Amino acid sequence: MADILYPRMAVIGCGLIGSSVIRAARRAGVVGEVAVADSSEAVRTRVAELGLADQVTGDVAEAVKDADLVVLAVPVLAMESVAKAAAGALKPGATVTDVGSVKAKVSQALQRAVPDSVFVIPGHPIAGTEQSGPDAGFAELFEKRWTILTPLPREDDPYLEAVQRLADFWTALGAHVDRMDDKHHDLVLAVTSHLPHLIAYNIVGTAADLEEVTRAEVMKYSAGGFRDFTRIAASDPTMWRDIFLANKDAVLEILGRFTEDLQALSRAIRWGEGDKLFDLFSRTREIRRGVIAAGQESPEPNFGRDRERH
Ligand code: NAP
């Protein structure tokens, strides 16, 4: 069993990601006591039934009291209000991190909200499914996935030690850890995650609105490619609304590039430029091979899920 890195951990928002952090941290033996605060009574009841925490409350300040690590796992635009609710009760020297999918806006919000006596270290595990809620979480979610930390530009030893401890925590949960500037994180994720989700939401919306093709036909023949988009487009509406609003600049920049490339593709189809299409499709095949070579091809790790769901 590993050493306890944080004697008390508070998780605010115990959905897919929050509950997976608890399951993985307990399995790794790196936390002592676990406290959960969640605004939803149904979630609190379920967390208690699943035995996920030593303390379950609707009061953020109560949960973070005496905590050495505070993990904010609520939708991105709820981070600031939750951090403000925690601020007065935070223990000096505690680490406050988050798992939000957008980093620059969240980092600024956390710095505004909490006192200087705590260490703010924003983070983002690049792992998830289209499910929500505490029942959807599982201990293996982060295994062999990347977690990106976006530390503040501070060079003092206590802060660097806190960052190293948090990196060790994620490593113990099975993740690979990278450190990155928050704005760069947001641009990278706009390409690898946010734009693909926007395209999926759009394509599924377009198909649903078509009059010439019936909905029954769309569903019946979905194996032709549409099915894969519907999985992504089933992702949580609150979470994704917040991501697009919080990462507006990077998403619009990448969307501009995407729209230009789409116009070029449409021209190539119109003018029968088969070579252009073939060249692009050959290049994209190489990218797929690169994803497989990097061990990131499966949408989610499914090993042992039935074994470890609490
Ligand atoms: P989730 O399953 O919906 O869980 C979020 C939980 O937070 C819910 O129980 C929600 O309660 C609760 N909550 C919302 N506002 C709150 C508040 N003000 N105070 C206390 N609790 C509050 O969502 P998730 O998928 O775990 O996502 C959580 C965070 O992880 C988001 O910031 C997201 O960007 C990030 N993330 C998600 C994924 C993914 O694939 N899902 C991957 C990486 C990172 P209600 O049910 O009442 O709203």
Q: What this model shows, in words?
A:
- The structure is a single chain.
- This protein has 310 residues and is α/β, with parallel strands linked by helices.
- The chain has helices at residues 16-28, 41-50, 60-64, 79-87, 104-113, 157-172, 182-209, 215-220, 226-232, 237-246, 248-270, 274-293; strands at 6-12, 31-37, 55-57, 69-72, 95-98, 119-120, 123-125, 146-149, 176-179.
- The chain has a six-stranded parallel beta sheet, sandwiched between helices. Strands 7-8-9 form a three-stranded mixed beta sheet, covered by helices on one side.
- NADP nicotinamide-adenine-dinucleotide phosphate binds next to helix 1, helix 4, strand 7 and helix 10.
For the structure shown, list the relevant keywords.
single chain; 310 residues; alpha/beta; six-stranded parallel sheet; three-stranded mixed sheet; 12 helices; 9 strands; 51% helix; globular; disordered C terminus; binds NADP nicotinamide-adenine-dinucleotide phosphate
Major sheet details: 6 strands, parallel
C-alpha termini separation: 19 Å
H/I helix tally: 12
What is the radius of gyration computed over CA atoms, rounded to a whole number of angstroms?
Answer: 21 Å
Which ranges are low-confidence, i.e. pLDDT below 50, for 5 or more consecutive residues?
Answer: 301-310
